[in-house]
Design brief:
With about 425 residues, the protein is α/β, with parallel strands linked by helices. The chain has helices at about 5, 10-20, 55, 65-75, 90-100, 115-130, 155, 160-165, 185-190, 215-225, 290-295, 310-325, 330-350, 375-385, 410-425; strands at about 35, 40-45, 50, 105-110, 140-145, 175-180, 195-200, 230-235, 270-275, 285-290, 355-360, 365-370, 390, 390-395, 400. It contains 15 helices and 15 strands.
Length: about 425
């Protein structure tokens, strides 16, 4: 045993280590996790918590899912990385699997969500020049106020969160911002010259789980078709069963298990962006899916990633997607999501600390009755932690609740009582 594994450090020592040696680019809740299984995580002192963040919806299949871990370990012992300079024996099988799973001709494999968004933007621009006939360097992509698509220089160029973009300029041009969930603004923007596409989150997760009007995505889809612009869905957070359907663009479909993508509510994107739960949180795996007409504009040498499409990622993603089907996680998220919002509504009616619950499936948020710059939501999350449930505020006074989708009804009801107890006894 080496020195590092022998030392058993306390939470406060570990927090101090990060504080001293790590960049301060996050503000974590003061809890240090050492183990996870299913819906639970444990801190270094051995206290158990319900995880109501799920690593921003990466751990939809639950922590350390045995099937996913098994795929990871087996492939890690066999072949980890070849780069795309050579073929590997896992990638083709995965590409066939994932394109069939989501119903697209082709996939372009990447690692993180931000890289997949970057890929989609590049693909959209290239399509615009080579297929739509926009003059080079003139293409514009429409995005929404309040968006969150990742942290690269180009992506933060069209963020309107000052934390995300202040003093990181100069910014990448070529983006037009419209209000979220505003179909008239979208149509006006689409009428401008040189529009290549519309990049949208079907539900804005980071912004505070903003769910658009029921018909917004359908109308946006139709308008993009009408104006020959690509409809690009960033489902990095909302996708893969989180909102009670395979994808949030599936709408209110009632498929009992795997989404068959035949529901009238399905708004098929031209480009679909996935990440996070594509690996069940075991490995960084992201993907861009599109049909040949779009994807084939990228030729050898024009885009890539050393790790994208590596054999571990391929095997892990196939296992992670299989778990969604085998454990009926779409249906579970849909049913338990309804129950959760109904239970939150009861708490809201009895208590004025919380004013609203919103969301879909198991991607939900409560709005705390205080200003966004108050510490109330943060303090409430600290109190929830003390009572055994981990959640994080987003944008000040909003608390997102997104447990792993393997949660059972009994576990969810225990969490409801933790939340109720915490809210009832909370003193500002
Ligand atoms: C998390 C997220 C991303 C970025 O993913 P990373 O893996 O953190 O780069 C992009 N879009 C959405 C909607 C996200 O929630």
């Amino acid at each position: 045993m080496n020195m590092i594994t022998q030392l058993k450090r306390s939470s406060s020592e570990l927090i101090a280590l990060e504080d001293q040696h790590g960049a301060h680019n996050y503000h974590p809740l003061p809890v240090v996790l050492a183990k996870g299984e299913g819906v639970y995580v444990w801190d270094v002192e051995g206290k158990r918590y319900y995880d109501f963040l799920s690593a921003y919806s990466a751990v939809n299949q639950g922590h350390c899912h045995p099937k996913i871990v098994d795929a990871l370990v087996q492939q890690a012992q066999t072949l980890t990385l070849t780069s795309r300079a050579f073929y590997n024996d896992a990638l083709g099988e995965y590409e066939a699997f994932v394109t069939q799973f989501f119903g697209f001709d082709k996939v372009l494999p990447m690692n993180t969500g931000a890289e997949a968004v970057e890929t989609a933007l590049k693909l959209c621009r290239k399509w615009a020049y080579e297929k739509k006939g926009i003059h080079e360097n003139e293409a514009k992509i429409i995005v929404c106020d309040g968006n969150f698509h990742g942290r690269t220089t180009t992506i933060i160029s069209f963020s309107n969160d000052p934390d995300a973009n202040k003093n990181f300029g100069p910014y990448t041009p070529g983006f037009i911002k419209i209000p979220y969930d505003d179909i008239e603004a979208l149509e006006k923007a689409l009428q401008q010259d040189n529009i290549a596409g519309f990049l949208v989150e079907p539900i804005q997760g980071e912004a505070g789980v903003y769910t658009p009007a029921d018909d917004f995505l359908a109308k946006a889809r139709a308008l993009c078709t009408q104006y020959n612009a690509l409809f690009i869905a960033d489902e990095v957070q909302t996708g893969i069963a989180r909102t009670g359907s395979l994808l949030a663009v599936c709408g209110n479909c009632t498929c009992e298990n795997k989404c068959e993508r035949q529901a009238a509510t399905y708004q098929r994107p031209d480009i679909l962006i996935l990440g996070k739960a594509l690996s069940g949180g075991a490995y960084p795996v992201s993907a861009v899916l599109a049909d040949d007409e779009i994807m084939m504009v990228i030729k050898p040498g024009q885009h890539g990633s050393t790790f994208g499409g590596n054999p571990i990622a391929a095997k892990v993603a196939m296992a992670a997607l299989s778990v969604i089907d085998e454990e009926h996680l779409i249906q579970n998220a849909r049913l338990l999501g309804k129950l959760f919002r109904a239970e939150m509504q009861k708490i809201i009616e009895k208590n004025d600390l919380v004013v609203k619950v919103r969301g879909k499936g198991l991607l939900n948020a409560i709005i705390v009755n205080d200003t966004p710059d108050s510490s109330t939501a943060w303090d409430l999350c600290v109190a929830l932690k003390d009572n055994g449930l981990l959640a994080k505020p987003t944008h000040g006074n909003i608390i997102r609740f997104a447990p792993p989708l393997v949660i059972t009804e009994a576990q969810l009801m225990e969490c409801v009582s933790i939340i109720e107890k915490t809210i009832t006894s909370f003193k500002k």
